[in-house]
Amino acid sequence: MKNNDEIRPFTIDIQQADLDNLRDRLSRTRWTTDLPDVGWSRGVPVGYLKGLAEYWRDGYDWREYERELNSYPQFTTEIDGQNIHFLHVRSPEPDALPLILTHGWPGSVVEFLNVIGPLTDPSAHGGDPQDAFHLVIPSIPGSGFSGPTGEAGWDTNRVTRAFAELMNRLGYDRYGAQGGDTGAVISPGLGRLNPDKVVGVHANGLSAFTEVKPDDVWELTASEQARLKNLEYMRSEQSGYMMIQITRPQTLAHGLHDSPVGQLAWIVEKFKEWTDPAAELPEDAVDRDLLLTNVTLYWLTGTAGSSANSYYETAHAGAWGASARSTVPTGVAVFPMDVSIRRTLELEHTIVHWSEFDKGGHFAAMEAPDLLVDDVREFFSKLR
């Protein structure tokens, strides 16, 4: 399929009628009931969700975050027949290193709002101007303002190829890649696809597709054994969402696309389970308004189903496994709730940098932006 190579400026301009419709739907929610004294053990409690939904309806201001997002240059272009939305924030430092940041699910470009300034203009944020980056922050096809995908087949390998073309189209023939969650699949994929262009890959939430052998468990450090137990818990207790999105995303889509509270619950559950375990509630780990901006973005763009469908595409294409060991220098940041184990990751990546943190969580750019920024700067300082 021939591409339209034009890069078009983009401005977010949500119609007031769409915001009024959201508030109306929130006011007409038909609430379920839950059992007493079960907390979060069976999912998001009704009482908690009611309070959050009421704030979303009456206290949250989408326009504030619309203005913030629009303060950064945004564009769209067509690649492989699909609309691709991205932020392109150039550093004031002319020799800055281009860096593509890739979000995951249930995240979006909103994840990176707190790191854009420090990464593009470090001297204005107490850093060294030599650590500056030109940032490219795309919305994964099927998510955000890239919009729903128009055809089947958009697995992570296809997204990787599209993002490689995006960087080529922007004129970047030497750049770094960073991401978490799905971004921790796509970013290493960019390195495998273009090892001559990608100078380094930095990832948080990086998981190995190679299993730890039972005989090797005793050789793991105490923290690694804890991560292995957490991985087993996630597979047994927290994999329901994944299996639904891998097998029947369209059925799920009907409920999430029609009910904002359904969409809110589906996402906020992950912000409870995957954020810093020291946080009692999701908003103790991530700013409440930033969390709601992320959820609102899914709602306003109608991408609940298409973002879930990416799991189906990737699983059925067998695209989650590493195709070959990456030769690109790789840095790994490990936050609480991550399940990264170095010995298995080294079978798939050339790891030259490894950091472990005792605060933060899966949504590192939102939870601990200062730690993530410092780690990204340190890793790429050796590769510029």
Report on this structure.
- The chain is an alpha/beta fold and 384 residues long.
- Helices cover 43% and strands 14% of the residues.
- The protein has 16 helices and nine strands.
- It has helices at residues 16-27, 46-58, 62-70, 116-120, 156-169, 183-193, 222-237, 240-247, 249-258, 260-273, 282-285, 288-301, 304-317, 342-345, 364-367, 369-381; strands at 7-9, 74-79, 82-89, 97-102, 133-138, 175-180, 198-204, 329-334, 350-356.
- The chain has a nine-stranded mixed β-sheet with strand order 1-2-3-5-4-6-7-8-9, sandwiched between helices.
- Helix 14 (342-345) links the parallel strand 8 and strand 9 (350-356).
- Helix 9 (249-258) runs antiparallel to helix 13.
- The longest helix has 16 residues, at 222-237.
- The model has no long low-confidence stretch (mean pLDDT 95).
Strand order of the largest sheet: 1-2-3-5-4-6-7-8-9
Number of strands: 9
Helical region count?
16
Order of helices and strands: EHHHEEEHEHEHEHHHHHHHEHEHH
Task: State the share of residues found in helices, binned by percent.
Answer: 40-55%
Hey, roughly how much beta strand do the residues contain? Answer: 5-15%
Describe the largest sheet.
9 strands, mixed
Q: How far from one another are the termini? A: 36 Å
Radius of gyration, whole Å: 20 Å
Mean pLDDT score: 95
Low-confidence stretches: none
Shape: globular
Q: Which structural class should the secondary elements be placed in?
A: alpha/beta
